[in-house]
Amino acid sequence: MYFVWGMIGLLLLATLIMPKRLTWREDIITFLIVGYVTWVTHILIGVKLDWLDFGPTKKVEYTDWAMVSFIPPLMAVLYLNFKKEKQTLLYIMIWTVLSFLMEFLLAKIGFMKHHQWKIWYSIPVYFAAYFALHWFFNKVIKSENRK
């Protein structure tokens, strides 16, 4: 449980002190959209299908809520702020590995329990998510700000 709060604290600190390439508007839009998609995915896979659980009980607790609400959106904001146009595929692979390692650590400490969902299923999901985020940011968010 402390590991999750520590991750949230570190990601929040990193988001606040990092060099900004995005505007605050782009950061907020990214945070809200990724947060929404994360919650829809969590409700479908974690609650309805019960393929994985967070925390010591099957109930959604504060730590579970905070993890789903803050870690993916903060990771997305960091990803987009550090993203460069060159070597996009390599950059997506690096963030896929980082995300997988975070999930692996959460599973190792017992916070994340995989049932029908095997941990390695997450690798293509993370890859697709970062690719989609890259595309969505360039085609929708960035183009909206140019108007």
Could you characterize the architecture of this molecule?
The protein is mainly alpha-helical and 147 residues long. It has one domain. Helix content is 73%, strand content 4%. The chain is built from five helices and two strands. The protein has helices at 2-17, 24-48, 62-82, 88-108, 122-145, and strands spanning 52-54, 112-114. Strands 1-2 form a two-stranded antiparallel ribbon. It is globular and about 40 Å long. The chain starts with a helix and ends with a helix. The mean pLDDT is 91.
Counted up, domains total: 1
| Envelope shape | globular
Structural class: mainly alpha
Strand arrangement across the biggest beta sheet: 1-2
Reported for the largest beta sheet, the result is: 2 strands, antiparallel
Strand content: under 5%
Task: Kindly state the percentage of residues in helix.
Answer: over 70%
Could you tell me the number of beta strands? 2
What letter string, H or E per element, gives the SSE order? Answer: HHEHHEH
The number of helical segments is 5
Radius of gyration: 15 Å
The overall average pLDDT, rounded, is: 91
| Unreliable stretches | none
Taking the alpha carbons of the first and last residues, their distance comes to 44 Å
